[in-house]
Amino acid sequence: MRKIIVIPGDGIGTEITSAAVDVLKSLDKKFSLELEFETHDAGGTAYDKFGTPLPDSTLDACKTADAVLFGAVGGTKWDNVEAKLRPEKAILGLRKGLGLYANLRPVKVLDALVDNSPLKPNLVGGVDLVIVRELVGGIYFGERCESEINDGVERAWDLENYSVPEVERITKLAFETARLRRSKLTSVDKANVLATSRLWRRTVNALADRFSDVELNHLYVDNCAMQLAVNPKQFDVIVTGNLFGDILSDEAAVIGGSIGLMPSASIGELTSLYEPIHGSAPDIAGKNIANPMGTILSAAMLLRYSLHEEDAARTIEAAVEKTLADGFRTADICSEGTTKLGTVEITKEIINRL
Ligand code: IPM
Ligand code: MN
Fold first, then answer.
1. Is 309 in the pocket of ligand 1 (CB under 6 A)?
2. Of the residues 79, 222, 283, 326, which is catalytic?
3. Is 274 a catalytic residue?
4. What is the pTM assigned to this prediction?
5. Which of 23, 71, 182, 274 shows a CA-CA span of 20 to 30 A to 192?
6. Secondary structure (3-state) at 148
7. Of ligand 1's atoms, which has the minimum distance to the CA of residue 275?
8. 56 is catalytic
9. Which of 84, 92, 105 has most ligand 1 atoms within 8 Å of CB, for mutation?
């Protein structure tokens, strides 16, 4: 059996992971996947139960898993919890604890959703890019100080740092990813200002010879943010650091019509973790209106990257595309002439099309 650890987390996490598990279960027989599921707590829910957002039992279970399927964590309920116990610490702790160094965030604009994009249809039709975000370094994990008082003035600080091996590891994976696609890699930094970015750029350039079949270019992050809005079709693979990747991937995601549709894979050495890129949306939790597609497509990435079940992965992706092409929508992407369904109901439509 292949063990999948399911971590629903908070807010809509329960609804969306249960939708994705239903999809996986209904494929199990056809592809002899032999999956077994084990659910664990993390996030605010875990904090309420155990006083910590990431219980050791959850992290340990993930270490022995074939893959982890993650929902979302966080919520206004825990806004006043001290920084080191906030729900977000669960996902950051999993990334660090499992060494999930590369976050792959694909953005593919489906024909059926071209009109849902905030950008003009002629700009977004055919967009197909992947952001490769470094996930266990940079300012997210540098030293920080919440409050320091000098001469009566309070300040806080966060340290950004990257080592050559950290940049090399993510860059190699990005070059390899580009090789399997359209062989174009854009490295994003802020080398006109930041020392870490200059080291980043030097390190990427030093590897370029080994991947001379891939076309490489560099963009400053501010320019990249603009290019994503004016000409997103120019991109194939984008590689960048943790913070820039966080910001650019939300921007890129919305180009596809809704952040609710976007999956991600966080690749590690021990195991890998799959999660939608959206948050826990506490305002709509429990109402059966959340879009489960980002999580269902994350389950497809799980099949592809962790279990090497390419056919099963494609089957899920095709079923999601067909459901959308047939006019079924959740509230976030619903427009005139389409049929609005709840989380459970649209999952059934997807399952019917597998
Ligand atoms: C994401 C999220 C997380 C991040 C938060 C929840 C810590 O925004 O996965 O993009 O900033 O990495
Ligand atoms: Mn984010």
1. no
2. 222
3. no
4. 0.94
5. 182
6. strand
7. 9
8. no
9. 92
How does pLDDT run across 5-30, given as a tens digit for each residue?
999 999 999 999 999 999 999 999 99
User: In this structure, which residue's CA is closest to atom 7 in ligand 1?
Assistant: 88
- Residue whose entry in the numeric block shows the structure tokens 């506490």: 282
For the residues of 291-317, what is the DSSP string, one character each?
Answer: --HHHHHHHHHHHHHTS--HHHHHHHH
Residue with tokens 């320091």: 148
Q: Which residue has the tokens 């993510």?
A: 170
CB atoms within 10 A of CB 194: 15
First CA to last CA across the chain, in angstroms?
Answer: 22
Percent pLDDT > 70 in the chain is: 100
Of the candidates 142, 47, 139, the residue with the CA atom closest to the CA atom of residue 87? 47
Residue found under tokens 């027989």: 29
pLDDT band with cut points at 50, 70 and 90 for residue 258: confident
> What would the pLDDT profile of 114-150 be if each residue is shown by its tens digit?
999 999 999 999 999 999 999 999 999 999 999 999 9
| Domain 1-101+268-354: which CATH number of 2.40.50.840, 3.40.30.120, 3.40.718.10, 1.10.10.410 | 3.40.718.10
**Predicted confidence band of residue 269 (pLDDT cuts 50, 70, 90):** confident
Residue 36's nearest CA partner among 352, 300, 307 is: 307
Would you say the CB of residue 10 lies under 6 angstroms from ligand 1?
no
| Residue from 68, 70, 79, 91 whose mutation best tests the ligand 1 pocket (most atoms within 8 A of CB) | 91
Q: May I ask the CATH architecture of the domain 107-258? A: 3-Layer(aba) Sandwich (3.40)
Is residue 246 annotated as a catalytic residue, yes or no?
yes
Q: Is the CB of 91 under 6 A from ligand 1?
A: yes
**Cβ–Cβ contacts within 10 Å for residue 341, how many?**
19
